[in-house]
Each structure stands twice: as structure tokens, then as C-alpha cells.
Amino acid sequence: MTPEDLHPVSPSCADCPIRHRAVCARCDERELGVLESIKYYRSFEAGQMVIWSGDKMDFVASVVSGIATLTQTLEDGRTQMVGLLLPSDFVGRPGREFAPYNISATTDLMMCCFRKKPFEDLMFRTPHIAQRLLEMTLDELDSAREWMLLLGRKTAREKLASLLAIVARRDASVKLCATRGRMIFDLPLTREAMADYLGLTLETVSRQISALKREGIIELEGKRHITVPDFDRLLNEAGDDSDGGMLS
Amino acid sequence: MTPEDLHPVSPSCADCPIRHRAVCARCDERELGVLESIKYYRSFEAGQMVIWSGDKMDFVASVVSGIATLTQTLEDGRTQMVGLLLPSDFVGRPGREFAPYNISATTDLMMCCFRKKPFEDLMFRTPHIAQRLLEMTLDELDSAREWMLLLGRKTAREKLASLLAIVARRDASVKLCATRGRMIFDLPLTREAMADYLGLTLETVSRQISALKREGIIELEGKRHITVPDFDRLLNEAGDDSDGGMLS
DNA sequence: GGCACTCTTTGATTTGGGTCAAGGTTTTGC
DNA sequence: GCAAAACCTTGACCCAAATCAAAGAGTGCC
Fold it and tell me: I want to staple A114 with a disulfide (CB 3.0 to 4.6 A). Which of A119, B25, B33, B82 is the partner?
């Protein structure tokens, strides 16, 4: 498969990401006008909290640039990442008043937000917006369930290979690489964040990355810059049947 | 909390479960008429497959009675349950042609099905149906993410306690028990099914159940009939912050 | 009643990944 | 340019849960 195959939807959007991810294709001028009037941008620095679990969340948003994570924690501090938000991903729940998990910026982050109440009003008046959101939510649910398989049944090595495959697939910069099967990208996560996503410890993540490097499945320059010489070989380590869904 | 608190929505529905779970409150006569005309019932025996992952799925459905499970498997046979369907739960995805996982009956099962195409048509014409489905899907997503925390970060004992707490909460028969905090119910799953749900082996499940019994946190009569003398004590073993969401 | 089957329990042993500890490397801030 | 902090790697050791093995319990069928 070529890198182009991996990006059926352009990740760039001149105006606002929600246009193509959630609504644009079927929106008329009036609806776009409403969206314009209720939107605002917020930026966050790497490490900053966007919202705490349980806090009031009076907006929905999509990621313009940068990476955000959704995490849940037990009282004793064990934490599990339950979602990774890359540019163009949507977050927020019409009909929910409080955030169900922590959202934090792992890199510098720009979000395009819409005030929740008027967004909900628009959604109730505009069936195709609710339908598009339903589709997106079903996709997220599929991803979450794919992730349950990973957390419950994959080995540490398979977990790492799966994560690298997902990031490679979604990272826009892989497009720059022309050689068939070869992919180059930067890991957007620290070892600790990867561990939280994969249900491992950071030491195990580090060891598995070293092992994949030692065996030539990945090449590593610095701590974050990764080259995958043969994407199919990486997928093979991930333990999935063929390439699978693994959207976000 | 009293057993009644656990069942804010009546699990019984004279006509069809989807009425109260998905649409009924806001449906008019004409919409209910359409639903009537496209619905049919299917029953399955314990152990029977409802649908295989990847097969064409031309219906959506809700569970009338019995238990069904959603599972995903790796080629080498490792399997992970990704959802448990109890009476009144909905399954199926408008806009998706193929089933993304195996659905199977773990007990005798009755489902109320709606042919997909006309259901989708109705949904497109009827905004509140799409909106209700969106709400339900968001709830499912929250449950899936709660489960990710369990799979990634909880110990075997905490996993078992969490599962027992969920089943106790959802099982209708707990209503029959009056004593505050005391709950009696039947496990609807084999040890192996529990293991697949929890990302454990069946031996570990068995050992943990024995341990909980030995310590008086549960009482066990036969293999399936469980008494929880003190529900709060069970929750305490589950490791959650207070009682949490843990819907299904 | 007894055989066959499925489900469950329990024990012995192994092992993958966690924990603890030390040191290396990169980034940030002054 | 140096110190501190953050992040990462590697090693030694340990333990929770997996694996392997055997036997008990319940159920249905002839």
C-alpha cells in the first residue's frame, strides 16, 4: 500500500476541521454561518490540561493541530489512556454536561471549539449533523473495541507494533515519503504516554522499542524520529489479521 | 443504595424494547407503525452464533431476553469480548454493511430485529431517532472506555469484582431482594466467557472467584448462583473511585 | 445406573512484564 | 556554558497471572 492510500481524507482544512470531518459536505450556507458565529479557537501548551474529568464542558471541538489525549485514572494514580486525538479528530458530547475523562495537550495544541448549547440547537434542527456525529461516534466505538482486544490479549511487543502502525498511518508527514512501504514519522508521545495507552510500564515500552530496533523492524534517530523500512513487516508484528481497522 | 436505585429504567417493555431504549418517548403513531411493519423476532439457542464478524448484517436489533456477547479474535484464536448485551440493549449500526465482530448467544436469546434499510430510512426522516441513537452510542463508548481502564490497569481480583458488580447492577432479579446492600443473582457467563471479557484465563477467573468466596465477599451456591452480602464491600474490591459509571 | 460430555476447581511450575535502581541523554532555564 | 530537570535506557530481581496437568461436579442421554 502506498502512503497515499492511508489518507483518503485530506487532513488539512482551510477554514475549520469540523467542516470536512463532521458537517461540511452536506452543510448549506446558513448552517455554516451558524457554525462560524459560535466558533472560537483555543491554544494550549504541551502538558497543559484542556479539561479535568468531571468538570463542566460547555463546548465541543475539533483538533486543528497538535495532539491531545483522553485519560482515565483510578484513585491510586494508575492511569489508562482511552483516546488519542490527532488533527481533525472531534471531541465532545452533545447532551452531556460534564467531561467524562481528562483531556490534556501532549504537544502544543490548537483546538477549534463550538459553544455547546448553540451547537446542540443546530444539531437538533439539522438531521445530517446528528447523523454525521453518529457515524463518527460509531467509528470511535469500533476503535475503542479494537483497543480492548489489544489491551486484553496482545503481548507487549504486539502492543508496541500496533501503536507504531497506528501513528504511522495517521501521521501526515508520512506522505512526504515516497518509497513504497517505507515510512518516516515522529512519535508524538513520551514513553510514559505510550505506556499509559498500552497498559504497560514505561520501562517495558522502552525495552520493546529497543528490541524492535535491534531486529531492524524500526530505525530510531534520537528518541522520537522513527523510520519503518517495511510497513508490512511492522504490521506482521502487530498480530492483527491483515491490516484491520485501527482508525484512531 | 437500594436495588431500586439501580434500575431507573424499567427493563420490561410490553411491545418492543426499542420503544423505550431508542425511540418510544418521542415517537408518534406513524413512526411506531413503520417500526411495527419492519420488525420481526428471532430466537437463538445458547451457544448459537447470531452473526460472524465480516458477514453482511442487514438488520439492527435489541435484546428481548437472554444474553449475547460481542467478541473479537486474533487469527491464533486469542479472543476478547468487547461487549455484553443484556435485555433492552441495542445492537447494529446504521450506515455499516458488515458486522465488525462476532455476536453470539450465551444463553437462549430472543432478539427483536428491524430490517436495516427501512430502519435507516426512518432514521433519516426522523431526527429524534438519530439523536437517541447518538446518545446510546455515546453511552456505549463511555462503557468501552471504562472497560479499557479495567483491561489495562486493574488486577485480576479487581477485574472480577468489577464484573460481578456490573452483572449485579444490571440483573433484573436483584430487584427481588429486599435487604439493603444484599444482592442475589445468577452469573450469565461461563468462567471462560468471563475470562474473555476480562482479558484473563479461565483458571485465573476460577481462582479469584474462590478467593472472593473464601473471604466472604461473595457467597456461591452451585457454580452460578451468587449472593453478595454487602455490595459496597464488593465495589470496594473493584478499585473504582466510588461507584462510577459502568453501564454495560 | 452409568457413560460421555462440558464446566469448574485446584495444584505445580513457568514466565512476561512489573518493580526497583542506576546511569545516560536531551532540553530548559538562568 | 552550566545546572537542573525531564526523559530515556538498561540491568537485576520479583511476582501476578499464564501454562500445564489432573481430578471433581453437574447434566444429559441411552
Answer: A119
